[in-house]
Automatic annotation (TrEMBL), chain A:
Keyword Oxidoreductase carried by entry: yes
Gene3D superfamilies: Aldehyde oxidase/xanthine dehydrogenase, a/b hammerhead, Aldehyde oxidase/xanthine dehydrogenase, molybdopterin binding domain
Signal peptide span: none
Domain Aldehyde oxidase/xanthine dehydrogenase a/b hammerhead: from-to ranges: 44-158
Organism of this sequence: Virgisporangium aliadipatigenens
GO molecular function, one term: iron ion binding
Protein name: Dehydrogenase
TrEMBL record, chain B:
Keyword Glycoprotein assigned: no
Domain of life per record: Bacteria
Matching SMART domains: CO_deh_flav_C (SM01092)
Source organism of this protein record: Virgisporangium aliadipatigenens
Protein name as it appears in the record: Oxidoreductase
Transmembrane segments: none
InterPro entries per record: CO_DH_flav_C (IPR005107), CO_DH_flav_C_dom_sf (IPR036683), Diverse_Substr_Oxidored (IPR051312), FAD-bd_PCMH (IPR016166), FAD-bd_PCMH-like_sf (IPR036318), FAD-bd_PCMH_sub1 (IPR016167), FAD-bd_PCMH_sub2 (IPR016169), Mopterin_DH_FAD-bd (IPR002346)
Domain FAD-binding PCMH-type, chain residue ranges per copy: 1-219
Keywords: Oxidoreductase
Gene Ontology MF terms in the entry: FAD binding; oxidoreductase activity
Length: 765, 323
């Protein structure tokens, strides 16, 4: 037994279970397919995004990117740029204000950066595309034109740019999200050698980019008193405030960050150089400054998903039971940045007698990788779930039956109990909807005109995460409405709608009497929207605030009231007020309780450490089913049918949640069939840095996506919910690869599955 | 700001006069304006010709004349084009997006520049953008690049779909220049890259494309356009095929084939056509002829797949037209 397992067992004995949220089964508002409250503004162009912010006296910035991957700036001449029409100033490492090193996302609860060096603090070039100067001008056109006039000479050093070439230099990182980089049980190599059926293959995935529709933008304004207000396209308002305060040496209360709408985050709307550069430019020029990245800047100045190379070896007995599971993986990384956690799915999905699951890193001189929708899990599952499908073929089993035979009773690597796990039920329901029994059973055996038709399936998986440390304020106004406030983030996934719903359920109000105020750091601190954790984190915090509010309201109860003398535990929120839990006749409305005051409010804090993770194995699961059509002449592959059956706890809003799953499936289809960031090994430069050349699915690539939620609550989570933002992408690429194999008999193990790999067999078998 | 003058030409003669004084022609702006934003093109004067020569004229001899400023969408939607030249209508709608086709002109489409990413990145070496600087694509990423008539100096492709159909249709380009008017076959409009890949067409200084003329459609022929690409829409061709075919008594009586995505120009497959003319209209014949076209191919590691893909697509398209 490993040290970790012993520690886990000790915890299991000593940690108390969390009480089940009484609203886990509530259905008045939660569970209803409410349309997005921000929908009309978004579709009519009324919603203001950061690049729409227009301040009096605002100037515009344009960045000068480096052209080498590693080295030093020998000379930088800004004379021509500074003299160009409309130019206000040029900031380089010669005149940039001193800025402190940003705190990395993984290091502290307030970290938000993936680059651990502040920009323009020295003459060192760390990757190709790093900004070496900022030009500030009276118009964007003036700034862009003058940026071309900045003359830079470099002393280039040899750079590590090719992930593929550097595999032999892979080393273990210190940890993978706090877990050991490699875990083992038993003699896995011996078990593999003695297995009745073996699959032992290498899978690879390229650099990916987030490609949010909204490009990153920042507007910075310094007040005469030296305070800073920043409008930023961010999914982490509070952490961005911390980063900027830390960088500029300001107390956090002197910095305000505002962001009401984000056009897609996916893990990439965090702190990069451009926010610091914008703040520095505003400081140097004394003007409010807007810095909006161009598409090519987003490719070269913000990170994407790291490339990976993954060996998966599976050994099974005659009945298909796993005797050995090996996942030896390598990802690209920059210095101490967080490694793409590709080995996580293999740690939790299958029971195997022996295993070795681990990952190494190759350090590269490229823009640091960021979190990208289900980091690690997405591409890790491509390798694992492709290999499982290959094993099913070899054993001669339905891949769902193979999974059923390897379904673990407890978490397969840390031994904890599952808080809930309905993976096999997800397969059953999804298979029924998809018509899995009528699938093509002979690879290459089904033809429809020019198309070869194939079917594939794969598991979705994503950890349940709850972020500690948030606060929520609930204000009840004199007219009996509730305004719930938190510095929460909406990147377009429906935060406002879902928060209104869950708060309305909690407070016993209809949704049109609840408002949700978010998007500004002057509101109570709220965690980053990441790890699909924001909803659960806010639900538990709203519950805490509602409990605090009960106390405040009960203190205001007059003697004559039926509620007089009751304690918070005696009352519940019901019908727009408070009511005795056992006696419906003893009630008071919010209007009565607020009385003559303008409003009454209370602030609640989330319970600090989410200890439930340590005691239980808490994950979401799901089953993807897809049909692909492969042109028999060209190898062009199109996805024609999709069913996703998702086990992500209780669903607050099936409409917005299904949109999250659909978006994730589309993004996963992109990774399966077309997405590939091309990094030129000679220069370390991303070559296809445009929306025309870096392909993501267009409308014509997207079929109907049928989403089923099991909607079974997790008894250990607030309202029984899990996150739904990321789970939908996990398993998608494998499902497509499995379907392509089923259609053609060609197994492609190197993403993306482009027609040349099917057609000529390069990258395939 | 990089300043330039803008003049809207009243007629072709004025446009040529302004161009002779140094102005660049501006059509729908869907390519030139992009290139100006990237500082790949740096004109100091633009003369807008998008208001000139719009419209489609049907001549008594059966030919059809398309004004150079006619929008791509208008060409593809024209009933006569759809009836007699379906290959052209299909080629146009398979390109770009609805919005771009609404803005893009026929003349501009003919003269659009390559989408080689190294051409588009001013930090890269590109003989087309900066003659003599070198070609970063040859040793770099070139999966989408040319395999026919390439040179050591350039392996870029011509990105147009429309032009591939025009070449298959034996269209003529009407040109007006300072020295007067002339007519050039679309197939002869382009140059192979050789040692001067920055010289892309045979147009002289200030020469303006005023119209494209489609000869009378071949009686009894059928035509189509097939584009093979990495996603269903809004992607340039890996390989595309425009074909016009007339079969009489199971024999190829007339055939014109043009290819996109394989050369620096819309490629007329003369070798394949020669092999096919008078030959039995059968899949094997189609395949052998298409393969013959690619005997002169000089692929690189990442684009070698085109050498086997293109003949398969040609054969499949001809099979579809003959069936």
């Amino acid at each position: 037994m490993s040290m970790m397992q012993r520690a886990t067992e000790a915890l299991n004995r000593t940690l108390p279970d969390r009480d089940v949220d009484p609203l886990t089964t509530a259905r008045r508002v939660v569970g209803q397919p409410v349309s997005r409250v921000d929908g009309p503004a978004k579709v009519t162009g009324g919603a203001a995004f950061t690049a729409d912010v227009d301040l009096p006296g605002m100037a515009f910035a344009s960045l000068v990117p480096s052209r080498i991957a590693r080295g030093r700036i020998r000379r930088i001449d800004v004379t021509r740029a500074a003299a160009a029409p409309g130019v206000i100033g040029v900031v380089t490492h010669d005149n940039a204000p001193r800025m402190d090193t940003p705190v990395l996302m993984t290091l502290t609860a307030k970290g938000c950066a993936f680059i651990d060096v502040a920009p323009l603090q020295d003459d060192v070039v760390r990757w190709n595309g790093q900004a070496v100067a900022v030009v500030v001008a009276e118009s964007q056109e003036c700034a862009d034109a003058a940026a071309h006039l900045v003359h830079v000479e470099y002393d280039a050093d040899a750079a590590r740019t090719s992930f593929g070439d550097l595999q032999s230099e892979a080393v273990f990182p210190a940890d993978v999200l706090g877990e050991p980089p490699e875990i083992t049980r038993g003699d896995v190599d011996g078990a593999l050698a003695g297995a009745a059926f073996v699959v032992d293959e290498v899978y690879s995935t390229p650099q990916h980019h987030h490609m949010a529709i909204e490009l990153h933008a920042t507007v910075a304004r310094w007040t005469p008193e030296g305070k800073l207000h920043v409008w930023d396209s961010t999914q982490a308002l509070v952490r961005t405030r911390h980063s900027l305060a830390h960088a500029m040496g300001l107390p956090e209360e002197d910095v305000t960050v505002t962001c009401r709408a984000v056009g897609g985050g996916f893990g990439n709307k965090t702190v990069w150089d451009h926010q610091l550069l914008c703040v520095a430019a505003a400081r140097v020029t004394g003007r409010p400054v807007r810095l909006a990245l161009r598409r090519k800047d987003a490719f070269r100045m913000t990170g994407g998903r790291a490339p990976s190379r993954q060996r998966v070896a599976l050994g099974a007995d005659a009945a298909g039971r796993l005797r050995a599971l090996v996942h030896d993986s390598v990802t690209g990384i920059v210095h101490e940045n967080s490694p793409e956690q590709v080995s996580v799915p293999a740690r939790h999905l299958y029971a195997a007698d022996t295993y070795r699951i681990g990952q190494k890193k190759v350090v590269l001189d490229v823009v640091p990788n960021a979190s990208m929708r289900a980091p690690g899990d997405s591409i890790g599952s491509f390798a694992l779930e492709s290999a499982i499908d290959e094993l099913a073929s070899r054993v001669g089993l339905d891949p769902i039956e193979l999974r059923r035979r390897n379904e673990p009773a407890v978490d397969p690597t840390d031994g904890t109990r599952f808080s809930k796990r309905h993976l096999i039920e997800a397969y059953r329901r999804g298979a029924e909807r998809f018509g899995w029994q009528e699938r093509n059973r002979v690879p290459g055996g089904q033809r429809d005109g020019r198309w070869l038709v194939g079917h594939g399936t794969a598991s979705a998986f994503y950890p349940y995460i709850r972020m500690p440390g948030g606060k929520v304020r609930i204000r009840i106004t004199a007219d009996g409405r509730a305004i719930v406030s938190a510095a929460a983030n909406d990147m377009g996934m429906g935060t406002e709608t879902v928060q209104v719903q869950q708060a309305a359920e909690r407070l016993g109000l209809p949704i049109d009497r609840v408002g949700f105020e978010f998007g500004d750091t002057t509101l109570p601190e709220s965690p980053i929207a990441a790890g699909s954790a924001q909803t659960a984190s806010l639900v538990i915090t709203v519950a805490a605030a509602a409990e605090e509010l009960k106390k405040v309201l009960l203190k205001r109860v007059p003697r004559r009231s039926a509620l007089y003398g009751l304690k918070p535990n005696d009352v519940v929120y019901r019908d727009g007020g408070l009511r005795h839990a056992g006696d419906p006749s003893r009630a008071a409305t919010f209007e009565e309780l607020v009385g003559e005051a303008e409003y009454v409010e209370a602030v609640g804090s989330s319970p600090m450490l989410p200890l439930e993770f340590m005691k239980y194995s808490m994950h979401g699961y799901g089953a993807h089913f897809c049909e692909v059509r492969v042109d028999a002449v060209t190898g062009e592959t199109r996805v024609s049918r999709w069913v996703a059956c998702i086990d992500a706890g209780r669903i607050i809003n099936p409409k917005t949640a299904a949109s999250q799953i659909r978006g994730a499936v589309i993004m996963g289809v992109g990774s399966a069939l077309m997405e590939e960031g091309l990094v030129d090994r000679r220069t370390g430069r991303t070559v296809n840095a445009s929306a025309a050349e870096y392909h993501v699915p267009v409308h014509a690539d997207v079929c109907d996506i049928d989403v089923i939620f099991l909607d079974l609550p997790d008894p250990l989570t607030p309202m029984g919910v899990h996150g739904v933002g990321e789970i939908g992408i996990v398993g998608v690429a494998a499902a497509v690869a499995n379907a392509v194999y089923n259609a053609t008999g060609v197994r492609v193990r190197d993403l993306p599955i482009t027609l040349d790999k099917i057609f000529t067999g390069s990258g395939a078998s | 700001m990089r300043e330039f003058t803008y003049t809207k030409a009243a007629d072709a003669a004025e446009a040529v006069r302004l161009a002779a004084a140094g102005a660049r022609y501006l059509g729908g702006g869907t390519n030139l304006v992009d290139l100006m934003r990237e500082e790949i093109e740096r004109p100091t004067a633009l003369v807008d010709v998008s208001g000139l020569a719009q419209g489609i004229t049907e001549h008594p001899d059966g030919s059809v004349e398309i004004g150079a400023a006619t929008r791509n969408t208008a060409v593809a939607a024209h009933p006569r084009i759809r009836r007699d030249y379906p290959v052209l209508a299909r080629a146009i709608v398979s390109g770009a997006s609805g919005q771009i086709r609404n803005a893009a002109t026929v003349g501009g489409n003919l003269l659009q520049r390559t989408r080689c990413p190294y051409f588009y990145d001013v930090a890269a070496r590109c003989n087309k953008r900066e003659p003599g600087s070198g070609c970063d694509a040859r040793q770099g990423f070139h999966r989408t690049h040319a395999v026919l008539a390439t040179s050591a100096h350039c392996i870029a492709t011509h990105p147009s779909d429309m032009c591939v159909a025009l070449v298959a249709l034996d269209a003529q380009v009407h040109i007006l220049g300072p020295a007067g008017a002339r007519v050039v076959a679309v197939a002869d409009l382009y140059r192979d890259p050789g040692e001067t890949p920055h010289l892309e067409t045979v147009l002289g200084p200030a020469e303006l494309i005023t119209a494209v003329r489609l000869p009378r459609a071949v009686d009894g022929a059928v035509s189509t356009y097939r584009k093979v690409r990495d996603r269903t829409s809004y992607a340039f061709a890996l390989v595309s095929v425009a074909a016009v075919l007339r079969v009489v008594d199971a024999t190829v009586a007339d055939v014109r084939i043009a290819l996109g995505g394989v050369a620096s120009r819309p490629w007329r497959a003369r070798v394949a056509e020669r092999e096919l003319l008078g030959a039995p209209a059968e899949p094997d014949t189609f395949k052998r002829a298409a393969e013959a076209e690619f005997r002169s191919a000089r692929p690189l590691p990442d684009n070698a797949f085109k050498v086997s893909l293109a003949p398969r697509v040609v054969a499949d398209v001809l099979k579809g037209l003959s069936g």
